[in-house]
Amino acid sequence: MGNSKSGAVSKELLEDLKLNTKFSETEIVQWYENFKKQCPTGRISKEEFQNIYSKFFPESDANTYAQHVFRSFDTNDDGTLDFKEYIIALHMTSTGKTTSKLEWAFSLYDVDKNGYITKSEVSEICLAIFKLIPKDEVGDLPEDENTPEKRTDKLWKIFQKGENDRVAEGEFIQVLLENEEALHLIQYEPSK
Ligand SMILES: [Ca+2]
Ligand SMILES: [Ca+2]
């Protein structure tokens, strides 16, 4: 018999994804077919990911932010996104419950993946976010968050941390669950 349908998603992976996301079998199979069509090698490189991502932000420079998003999705650190990483990412960022989204946000901000967020990591992501915001929208931002530095300071103050302190994942999630403003500051929501 063998594995004649090598193009199909394996049973183990399907079970795994059904368990770890709220997607149905039909959805996963459908996404897998699309994924294989767009990406016959079964893996998305960082460059391909940046290209795809940039299409959503034609008026700004999404490259730096896309690199960070890619890093946060590439959970096994091999420099490519496979189908599992892609689906889990999709689940966490679009349809996941708030906590899963915040877990993802934590991994986005934890640039060196050491389990803690420092102020310089917040500053790095804020810089990337600012490149993502179209120029005409930057002018509409409140005075105390209209530069990457101000935004970083404002966020860091909400976490009640000193310059050289760091934030652990549990703390990060708890603060964001309790603070609407922090939730707004950690991300860029396109206004249109
Ligand atoms: Ca990977
Ligand atoms: Ca870190």
Automatic annotation (TrEMBL):
Residues 61-96, 97-132 form the EF-hand domain. Pfam families: EF-hand_7, EF-hand_8. SMART domains: EFh (SM00054). Keywords: Calcium, Lipoprotein, Metal-binding, Myristate, Repeat. GO terms for molecular function: calcium ion binding. Gene3D superfamilies: EF-hand. InterPro entries: EF-hand-dom_pair, EF_Hand_1_Ca_BS, EF_hand_dom, Recoverin. May be involved in the calcium-dependent regulation of rhodopsin phosphorylation. Binds three calcium ions. Belongs to the recoverin family. PANTHER family: CALCIUM BINDING PROTEINS (PTHR23055), VISININ (PTHR23055:SF166). This is Recoverin.
